[in-house]
Amino acid sequence: MKIGYKIIFLLGLVVCFAYTLKATEQTPDRRPKRPRDDVTSIENTPSALQSSTTQTVEQTPGQLVSQRQAEILTKERFAAVIGEDIINSWGIEWHVFADPTLEFDAPQKSRAISVIHNKMNYLLKKRFDEEFMVLYGSVAGVRGQRETVHADRLDILTIKYFTELYPHAAKIASLDKQGGVQLGERIKVTFPDGSTLLYHVKTHSEGRLSDKSTAPKLVNPQELLAYKILELLGFGCEVHFFEKSPEDVYIATLDASFVSKTKRGEFNVFQKAAGRLGLGGDDAYGQNIWGTLADQRRQISENAEIETWNVLEKNLQSDEIAQNFIHQQSALDIITRTMRLCDLLNNPENFGFTSCDDRLPQLKVIDFRVMDPKELVLEDSDFRGFLVGNGIYNYASSHDTMCYVLRNRPRAARVAHALHIMNTSLIHLVDVINRAHQIIFTYLQKEIFDTKRKKLEDELNSYSETLRKNTEFFKAELEDWSPEKDRAREEARQRVLNRAR
Ligand SMILES: Nc1ncnc2c1ncn2[C@@H]1O[C@H](COP(=O)(O)OP(=O)(O)O)[C@@H](O)[C@H]1O
Ligand SMILES: [Mg+2]
Q1: Which residues, judged by CB distance below 6 Å to any ligand atom, belong to the binding site of ligand 1?
Q2: Gap between the Cα atoms of 187 and 272, Å rounded
Q3: The predicted structure's pLDDT at residue 493
Q4: Separation of alpha carbons 79 and 443, rounded Å
């Protein structure tokens, strides 16, 4: 019974404490802290703009937490409740909390808070008095506040970025993130004419996660470059980068349903077309994306003779929707292979299609990973992976339609189509790489990257160079391919395999 009361009492204390902190934050010179839901907004008046700037400069969420740490975590306070001898035995460096040069999440502070918390947990078995409980509650409150700082920081910097980007917006509101593991949120911009834009904001892939306080790593310029290239090619969404530090870089993408300022399409991840969301209506939706491809493909067996596959190829020629699907999937397969992106076409939650009126569906990428720097250069084996229709991507287990386009389709047709794409849709790929490079290079000139710029620029330069080479390599291999060479290569491979047996 005693324990039950204790838990209720503690919970009450933590809630009260958090509430007090929130109330303290809402001082007149500070914009009210926004709850993390669909209700947050700032009116974009000159004064709101002014106050958002003042807030960032004068009292960031991190500084506020530092201030609370200094007020609450003092040796005197703990000694008065727990006793000086015990407190001395804990070996805490209390001065770190009052040190203005240390950030709220400096390792010295985190270590000390963790020791205090552990020691108090131990004492909790013996102490039931209110004085102790209040102190315990305040430590729990300080710990909780620490974790929300990153989300608040991201929110404030995001609002600031979009306020500057759209100074004439009528309203800029933050909404919760839709899923995924990276820390982030969504931003809705409303214009005076009532039109809106939705952006998805998240930390870079080695940045902060939403549920862990592991230290973020330095941003990887490859990731930024890849986002930009995809945007310029039309396969990615409009993308923006802004930051708190070289480790806390945020990536904002325009919602994939965007078609034009006045037109909104419908975007769905491929998972829906594949019928794996179980939401109903998926079959009909799938047909809008791939036309008759699924039906026609299912009429033949996986082991059918080449002639049967060639007939299917021919039958699909007159299906404009199927052709659009085949074309876009093939182009993105080439891009992911040459740019060394992963977790993309083989993850049906990371890409999808935007449909709008009677336009052909547009393939859009929303998430991906860049490969390890050691694996960036394309090699012979990678091209063989393309020929087989797998390699590093496991298309064998993809939806029938994708598996057809990227694997089962007759190889000669797949190679010819890939070469056609490189000579048409992707003819300017190297120019696009260069343009994207220039944009990311310019972004890295911001003062905040001063100490890391050399490393970041080196990485960026080497990735761009590798991408240009990969593009040339892939095209040359496609040009060089012939059924005869393919057969010879396959026979040679079999001989090696047989010898090894
Ligand atoms: N540009 C976008 N357009 C539409 N939906 C998006 C976009 N960006 C993200 N989302 C949605 O938000 C979810 C999480 O975003 P994602 O970039 O995958 O985050 P994480 O890197 O944490 O996995 C996605 O699964 C998707 O539903
Ligand atoms: Mg994701």
Answers
A1: 178-182, 200, 202, 237, 253, 255-256, 267, 349, 366-367
A2: 24
A3: 83
A4: 50
- Among protein residues, the one with the nearest Cα to ligand 1's atom 1 is 255
Atom of ligand 1 nearest to the CA of 200: 8
Which of 321, 326, 317 is closest to 360 using CA atoms? 321
Determine contact, residues 399/274, Cβ cutoff 8 Å: yes
Q: Which H or E element spans position 355?
A: strand 351-355
Neighbour-count burial of 314, counting CB atoms closer than 10 A to its CB (0-12 exposed, 13-18 middle, 19+ buried): exposed
Ligand index nearest the alpha carbon of residue 210: 1
Burial class (CB in 10 A: 0-12, 13-18, 19+), 431: exposed
The pLDDT value recorded for residue 135 is: 94
Encoded amino acid at 373, one letter: P
Q: How far is the CA of 347 from the centre of ligand 1 (A)?
A: 12
pLDDT along the chain (501 residues), means of 10: 49 44 34 35 36 52 90 95 94 94 87 91 88 92 82 92 96 91 94 96 91 83 98 98 96 97 93 77 87 94 91 95 98 97 95 95 97 92 92 89 94 96 97 98 98 98 97 97 90 85 73
Residue 83: C-alpha distances to residues 72, 142, 157 (Å):
17, 21, 43
